[in-house]
Design a protein that fits this description.
The protein is α/β, with parallel strands linked by helices and 196 residues long. The chain contains 6 helices and 8 strands, in the order H-E-H-E-E-H-H-E-H-H-E-E-E-E. The protein has 2 domains: 98 residues, K homology (KH) domain (GMP Synthetase, Chain A, domain 3), CATH 3.30.300.20; 88 residues, Ribosomal protein S3 C-terminal domain, CATH 3.30.1140.32. The protein is 35% helix and 29% strand. Helix 5 runs antiparallel to helix 6. The two termini are 31 Å apart. The strands form 2 sheets. It has a 4-stranded mixed beta sheet with strand order 1-2-3-4. Strands 6-5-8-7 form a 4-stranded antiparallel beta sheet.
Length: 196
């Protein structure tokens, strides 16, 4: 076995922050389970809003949830009605006051999670996996990504024997910590995007 490390964990504290920011204390496990519940709820509730990351910060009385999304209009709604509903729903889950921040992703074509979920959705809709991957690679390179690598594995096109396939374009220097390298596993798709 090679000594492989997760690129996110390798860069924590250098160029990337944590997804949850709080001090655990004695009830660390409860807070961790609550964070997981909040994240799962947001990803299910806002499935059409292209949510990429959910960052949770806690103080004594307030839980601050920051959602990064490609489509903030769906989350905010008309006059902010959807945000207020979501705040109330999250307040029921956490039992504390919830502050909600929504940030827009300017270039969703180079966000690893969004590209991976897009490819997965296309494969679920019976589009050829090669076509879906090549279109995603072309879109990312058009948006000035330095390089992109996609690995897909499983029973591709319904074949009896499972296999892995790699597609890449541009430079992907995995050893440089200065570059933002993001890795997401999503429905048997491994997708790595390096930005300038």
């Amino acid at each position: 076995m090679g000594q492989k490390t997760n690129p996110i964990g390798n860069r924590l504290g250098i160029i990337r922050g944590w997804e949850s920011m709080w001090y655990g204390g004695n009830d660390y496990g409860d807070k961790l389970a609550e964070d997981d519940k909040i994240r799962k709820y947001i990803y299910v509730r806002l499935a059409k809003a292209s949510v990429s990351r959910v960052i949770i910060e806690r103080t004594l009385k307030i839980v601050t949830v920051t959602i990064t999304t490609a489509r903030p209009g769906i989350i905010i709604g008309k006059g902010g009605q959807e945000v207020d509903k979501l705040k109330e729903e999250l307040k029921k889950i956490s039992g504390k006051e919830v502050q909600l921040n929504v940030y827009e992703i300017k270039r969703p074509e180079v966000d690893a999670y969004l590209v991976a979920s897009s490819v997965a959705r296309q494969i679920e809709n019976r589009i050829s996996y090669k076509r879906a991957i090549k279109m995603s690679i072309a879109a990312a390179m058009r948006m000035n990504a330095e390089g992109i690598k996609i690995q897909i594995s499983g029973r591709l096109n319904g074949a009896e024997m499972a296999r892995n396939e790699h597609y890449k374009d541009g430079r992907i220097p995995l050893s440089l910590l200065e570059l933002i390298s993001i890795m997401h596993w999503l429905k048997h798709i491994l997708l790595m995007v390096d930005l300038v």
